[in-house]
Amino acid sequence: AGASSKWDIREKVWDHLESSGLAEFPRPVHRRIPNFKGSLQACSSIQELDVFSRAREVKVDPDKPLEGVRLAALQARKTLLVPTPRLRTGLFNRIVPPPGATKEILRICATSQGVKDYSVPVGLDGRARVDLVVVGSVAVSEKGWRIGKGEGYADMEYAMMVSMGAVQEDTPVVTIVHDCQVVDIDEELLGDHDLTVDYILTPTRIIKTNCKRPKPRGIIWHKVSYEMLGKIPILKTLRYREKQMGKDVTLQDEHPHLANTTRAAALNKEMAENTQPQAATGSAQMGQHHVESDPLNPRLEGSGTITTVYVGNIPPSLRVSELKCALREFHVTPFRLNWQGAQHRAFLDYKDQVTAERAVSSLKGLSLGGNALRVELAKSQRNKG
């Protein structure tokens, strides 16, 4: 019943916003963090909060109804961090307005276009210290319970910030909603991964929730699926780190207790036999042999062949430093980088095939500067001179 009740609340709010004429672009507001009439008014009241005045770095979600907060942060010359859409490239981008930016430019920087045109990715080690977090909501209660649009991104982003040390337990969380989105929410509907809020701003009031419920203390790995790990590359990095620290990073769809049972062993054996091992090992050995005996292949400290990765569809605005930042982020820094920005491409040289292939799977579809990169192993004919 829990999940459906959350959906009941969402549907009610979305329906009401639409039917009452309070919904604003982009519409319909269903399945989104809804934009509403009066959102700018609600946003501008953030300037009355001490926690905003004191904050140096503010993290604001990219949703349309939060545009006014992003503008207020830029006008107050604060560092503005915005999560990259669907967390495709790391955790957030820092919006960097050009020097001497006019009001008009700042306005553009605060829109979704600003994330594309005026932002630099912040690496996991970018030492971000976030002083204030602003999230969108579909519904929220005066006690500070929050319901998002149901994809879990805000909760996940918060957990990731905890994991990388960007937020502390007392970092305040603010949400911006229309008065009609402030509803009673049964505490039973909240999970331990659900983010709560400390301040609610509406067009007519500022509510301090005094919420005592602890916020998520980090990523709850057993609630993370393989699919999510695939969608959010930075999660792989955080998971690797936490594993090194000795944390249990078992995922939702991993069953460690099955791994060492005889049933699993039998299953693995069966799977191995079904993959025609003759053909597989045969070609693998041949490949290996080919590498060893090919005198034309440049060799490096006897570690095998240099493998080159091609990166295409690089936007003209992208700087080589931003690509390097993304490569560091995914732990796939090449030993040599051949940047051909004018041709919208770059070639990355790796000392072994494994790292090169990891680079391809990490970077594939990665969106930088608004372009989805094309990433593949380079044709071996390319002269690597």
TrEMBL record:
Among PANTHER family, the record links this protein to: 5-FORMYLTETRAHYDROFOLATE CYCLO-LIGASE-RELATED, METHENYLTETRAHYDROFOLATE SYNTHASE DOMAIN-CONTAINING PROTEIN
Protein name as catalogued? Methenyltetrahydrofolate synthase domain-containing protein
Q: Which PROSITE patterns match?
A: RRM
Q: Which portions of the sequence form the region Disordered?
A: 271-300
- Write out the entry's keywords from A to Z: RNA-binding
Q: Which GO terms describe its molecular function?
A: RNA binding
**In which organism is this protein found?**
Mionectes macconnelli (McConnell's flycatcher)
Query: Where is this chain compositionally biased, Polar residues type?
Result: 273-286
Q: What CDD domains does the database record attribute to this sequence? A: RRM_MTHFSD
Keyword RNA-binding part of the UniProt annotation: yes
| GO CC annotations on file | cytoplasm
* Gene3D superfamilies found in the cross-reference section: 3.30.70.330, NagB/RpiA/CoA transferase-like (3.40.50.10420)
